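[agent] plan:
  1. take the single chain provided in the ticket
  2. run structure prediction with default settings
  3. attach C-alpha cells to the ticket
  4. add a short note for the reviewer (M.T.)
[agent] executing step 1
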Amino acid sequence: MTLIFYIIIGFITFIAFLHAWARKEFDISRTVVINRSKEDVYNLVRQLKKESHWMPWFKKNYKGILKFNGEDGKQGALLYWRSKNRLFEGTQKIVKLNQGRIMETRVLVIRPAKMILLEYKGLKELDENKTKMVWGIRGGLNFPFSVIALFQPADKMYGEDLELGLKNLKTMLEYKNKKTEVD
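[agent] step 2 finished; step 3 output follows
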C-alpha cells in the first residue's frame, strides 16, 4: 500500500514538474502570397460568414450550429458555433480592424476545454494584384494542455491547419474560371 502511495506521489510530482517546465503560451503564424488585390483579399477574410468557405475547421463537413450576431465584417461582429455532438463549442468576435491591413478576433473555446485565443490576419500589398497575407493564432496553454504540448507541439497541431486554410483561401481567390464573390 505504501509503495502505491509513493508511486502516485512520484507521478503527480513528475507531471507538476513537466507543467512548470513547459511553455505556457504560443504564437503560430503562416504566410502566403495571393495573386489578387489587397482590397479583394481583405473584403473576404474580414467576413465571419465566409470563413466556412476556406477555414479547415469548417470545411471538414461541419455539421452543427453557426449563429451570427452584429454586422458581419465590422468590429463587434460575433460568430457562435456548436458541433452537432456538442463536443466543440465557442465564439469568435472581431475585436480590431485596421482597414485593409489588420484584423484581430478573440476566439473563446468553451468545449472541449475553456481557452481564449487571439486570431490575427495581416495583409501587405506587394503590387497591384499581389498580396502577402499572414494568418496566426496566439494563446495560452493551461494544464493539461501545456504538458500535452511537450509531446505534440502547438505549432504542429495548429500550423498544419493554418497552412491548409491559406491554401484554400489562395485557391478560392485565384480561381480564374469562376468569379469569386468577395463582397
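[agent] step 4 note for reviewer: The chain has one domain: 25-174.
[agent] ticket updated
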